Amino acid sequence: MRIILIEDERDLAAALKKGLVEQGYTVDAASDGEEGLYMAENFPADVIVLDLLLPKMDGLALLSRVRRKGIQTPVLLLTARDALSDKIKGLDAGADDYLTKPFAFAELLARIRALLRRKTEVKESVIRIADLQIDTASHEARRAGRAIPLSAREFAILQYLAYHSHAVVTRTRLIEHIYPEGYEWDSNIVDVYINRLRNKIDKGFAKKLIHTVRGTGYRLNDEPG
After folding, report:
1. Residue 214: what pLDDT?
2. CA distance 124 to 91
3. Among 35, 53, 78, 106, which residue's beta carbon has the most beta carbons within 10 A?
4. Which of the 8 DSSP states describes residue 209?
5. What percentage of the chain's residues is helix, strand, coil (to nearest 5)?
């Protein structure tokens, strides 16, 4: 899952990016409002984490412009302001949630997961597809009760497929949501990861859950391929 982080406090931004990457998220970071607006308008993302006080363009102005362009990516505001009027302004401008600084990183993660669930048909932290369970909070997966060891990248792909199990996910869409902008990747990298996931999730089971839709992409569900 891909996050755009727009935060001008260098140490905080570095700590948040490091923590989010360790949790398996792909993160594109901007340190001012103009750069953040460019990313929000041009980079595909699942969530935007947006500081309210930014140089060059403040968070509210950025958010208003993004929403006027019809971009509906969920936005989590970070603000040092705790006045009720500031929070109301943020929500009225199109924010989906907010956190007042200082905050616990665990709460930030929980709110991001809630926003991700809100934008999909998934409403619980544990996604169940047949006998496969994917815990988006602990980043653990099990099939038929057996733990499946996954790398951070493997889990990111599995989670993205699970969030969109009602649709076919193209290779391009997977690339856009699991690698940061500018990353140089091999043309067959998605196929490599899908094969690894198949070996870990489907191997030894009669019912296959990862399906290839020829010429299009992949589906994760319990329907025949």
Report:
1. 86
2. 24
3. 78
4. -
5. 40, 20, 40
